[in-house]
């Protein structure tokens, strides 16, 4: 049959040999995995030795898009980067918005499967006819904005779309990121470090034809028009349009779940000083969006007082960045927070992990765990914040250790440090306090990536019967309003449904900010869009089964990498009472409730008590080909 939406072409690129081959997987493949996370996991499970070090040249780095990517509807801008993570030594995945994902589809590829290591710094050039491996000496050592500008100059085209790393990726910082237009970031899990380990500086797409064959273009257009006409009437979408995610700092602080001073408290006394609106007032603000999206939740800022300059090409800080580099480090200067965000985006290092590592070092300094005469390690020290960002990116002094990630740093300093290291599976925690929303905590524990911020919608959105988010979830069978702090079987069931929804978006590479629950598009719209783009007679049931398939595949990947039930855990800090004066002061997660929740989640997913998927579940999910990983000699991998 004719393929619509997907191109039916996957490029396999071996940087060691320079050999590039192509594969056409076929319609049933795309209907089984959709793209994005699902496609990436298929190739990682099939082709990657799970025992390899992530920096081994045989590690696989995958850039993939969903079957709908490139169709002109809001939120359809993202791409997935996946590999074995150097931060967790397990499944690594990050998503990025902007324009690069759509351009990859327009260039004629659904995915790039990259192996090997170039003998010298290189970049990939994708043009209208082919893929070329080119010398990157002229951009090696440059930051993300410089890299993009130099590539555009060399190719004599301002329309080139570039995904690149900065010095953090070159220096193998374990949480280095990948950037498109500098400010759109595949930030988590160290995908930029894997790229750097392969001597791959950038992937540039320079094409003229930008078309996608869809099944029903009129229907896609009608869905896009519906969103454009109505998104300002939707509270969450209109808020993002006006303020971006950075405008949420004060609201999160008021609720009492703003991570403060290495997650000791949920209230920061100076939250209003670093709220996005304050930053925008001081430094100006320009809206900027992603491909085909009118929301414009990205905010650009610039600042120059003679002594300190912040360049707009690196973008303004998002909520996660403000919390990580601001409240969690005890920093109340909005200009310094914005500067810290700029430096992270320039060097290509994840703001969330960077902020967590520095906050951890600050608390270690105050406790006398780390004594280093080169740094005055205490909360609120703006000088040490900026200094350590530089030193992490270039692996200098204490920064060289912090570049390894908080788990490895804590292991070096012993038991007291390990008790205050906030991570799951090695990934530093996202900026959401699970003692005030326990479903998020469960997601941190059982999610395949660790303590990630894109695992499920948050508990407070479902705590009243008339909550729009809860009403949107009714087609999945979710009807009950639940407490944000009670971790029981109902909460686990709610979590599973919410995890499936966001896993679906990871396979489609659709932004969580446009779809249900709570946003302008509803489930019927998502289903109709997939139908209109691909021509498939699909349903919400089929799409959520694809999402479940991807979660189970990620679980098997982690099992093969040696992860066990013990890794589906939470740091000690979340089992301690939350400090401060917020509504959740004194709240903690009870270990017995948490243990029950993990066991219940395994059962709901069709996994045994150790978290190993049953043969029956694999058969149901059309994953029986993975049974060989659970049997005989292969079982020792688990």
Tell me, briefly, the overall form. Answer: globular
Q: How would you characterize the largest beta sheet? A: 6 strands, mixed
The CATH class of the largest domain, by name, is Mainly Alpha
- Give me the count of strands: 18
Can you put this structure into words, describing what you see?
With 638 residues, the protein is of the alpha+beta class. The protein has three domains: 10-205, Aldehyde ferredoxin oxidoreductase, N-terminal domain (Aldehyde Ferredoxin Oxidoreductase,  A, domain 1, 4-Layer Sandwich), CATH 3.60.9; 245-419, Aldehyde Ferredoxin Oxidoreductase Protein, subunit A, domain 2, CATH 1.10.569.10; 438-637, Aldehyde Ferredoxin Oxidoreductase Protein, subunit A, domain 3 (Orthogonal Bundle). It is 39% helix and 11% strand. It is built from 25 helices and 18 strands. It has a six-stranded mixed β-sheet. The chain has a six-stranded mixed β-sheet with strand order 8-7-12-9-10-11. A two-stranded antiparallel ribbon has the order 13-14. Helix 2 (36-47) runs parallel beside helix 23, helix 7 runs antiparallel to helix 22 (523-534) and helix 19 (438-446) packs across helix 21 (489-508). The longest helix has 21 residues, at 540-560.
């Amino acid at each position: 049959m004719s393929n619509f939406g997907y191109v039916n072409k996957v490029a396999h690129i071996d940087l060691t040999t320079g050999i590039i081959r192509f594969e056409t997987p076929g319609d049933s493949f795309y209907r089984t995995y959709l793209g994005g996370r699902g496609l990436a996991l298929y190739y990682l499970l099939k082709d990657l030795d799970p025992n390899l070090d992530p920096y081994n040249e045989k590690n696989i780095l995958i850039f993939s898009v969903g079957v709908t990517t490139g169709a002109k509807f809001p939120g359809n801008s993202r791409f997935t980067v996946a590999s074995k993570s150097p931060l967790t030594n397990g499944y690594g995945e990050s998503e990025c918005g902007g324009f690069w994902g759509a351009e990859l589809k327009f260039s004629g590829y659904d995915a790039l499967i990259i192996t090997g290591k170039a003998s010298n710094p290189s970049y990939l050039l994708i043009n209208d006819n082919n893929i070329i491996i080119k010398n990157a000496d002229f951009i090696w050592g440059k930051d993300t904005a410089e890299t993009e500008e130099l590539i555009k100059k060399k190719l004599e085209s301002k329309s080139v779309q570039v995904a690149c790393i900065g010095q953090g990726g070159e220096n193998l910082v374990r949480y280095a990121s990948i950037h498109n237009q500098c400010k759109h970031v595949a930030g988590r899990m160290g995908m930029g470090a894997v790229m750097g380990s392969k001597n791959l500086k950038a992937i540039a797409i320079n094409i003229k034809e930008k078309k996608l064959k869809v099944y029903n273009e009129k229907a896609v257009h009608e869905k896009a028009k519906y969103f454009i006409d109505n998104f300002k009437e939707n509270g969450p979408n209109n808020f993002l349009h006006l303020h971006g995610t950075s405008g949420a700092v004060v609201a999160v602080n008021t609720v009492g779940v703003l991570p403060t001073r290495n997650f000791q408290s949920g209230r920061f006394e100076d939250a209003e000083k670093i709220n996005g609106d304050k930053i925008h007032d001081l430094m100006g603000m320009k809206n900027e969006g992603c491909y085909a999206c009118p929301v414009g939740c990205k905010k650009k800022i610039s600042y120059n007082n003679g002594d300190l300059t912040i360049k707009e090409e690196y973008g303004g800080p998002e909520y996660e960045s403000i919390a990580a580099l601001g409240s969690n480090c005890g920093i109340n200067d909005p200009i310094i927070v914005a500067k810290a965000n700029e430096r992270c985006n320039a060097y290509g290092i994840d703001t969330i992990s960077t902020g967590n590592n520095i906050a951890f070092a600050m608390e270690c300094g105050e406790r006398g765990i780390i004594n280093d005469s080169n740094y005055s390690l205490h909360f609120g020290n703006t000088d040490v914040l900026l200094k350590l960002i530089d030193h992490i990116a270039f692996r200098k002094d204490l920064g060289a250790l912090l570049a390894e990630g908080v788990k490895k740093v804590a292991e070096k300093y012993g038991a007291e440090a390990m008790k205050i290291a906030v991570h799951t599976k090695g990934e530093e925690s996202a900026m959401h306090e699970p003692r005030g929303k326990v479903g998020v905590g469960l997601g941190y524990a059982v999610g395949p990536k660790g303590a990630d911020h894109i695992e499920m919608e948050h508990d407070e959105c479902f705590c009243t019967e008339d909550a729009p988010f809860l009403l949107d979830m009714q087609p999945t069978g979710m009807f009950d309003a639940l407490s944000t702090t009670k971790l029981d079987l109902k909460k686990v069931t709610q979590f599973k449904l919410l995890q499936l929804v966001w896993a679906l978006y990871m396979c489609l590479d659709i932004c969580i900010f446009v779809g249900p629950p709570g946003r302008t598009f509803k489930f019927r719209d998502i289903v109709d869009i997939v139908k209109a783009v691909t021509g498939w007679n699909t349903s919400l049931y089929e799409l959520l089964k694809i999402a479940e398939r991807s979660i189970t595949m990620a679980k098997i990947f982690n099992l093969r990498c040696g992860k066990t039930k013990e890794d589906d855990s939470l740091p000690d800090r979340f089992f301690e009472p939350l400090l401060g004066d917020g509504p959740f002061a004194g709240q903690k997660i009870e270990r017995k409730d948490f243990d029950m929740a993990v066991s219940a989640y395994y059962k709901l997913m069709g996994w045994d008590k150790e978290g190993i998927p049953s043969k029956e579940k694999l058969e149901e999910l059309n994953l029986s080909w993975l049974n060989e990983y659970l049997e005989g000699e292969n079982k020792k991998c688990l």
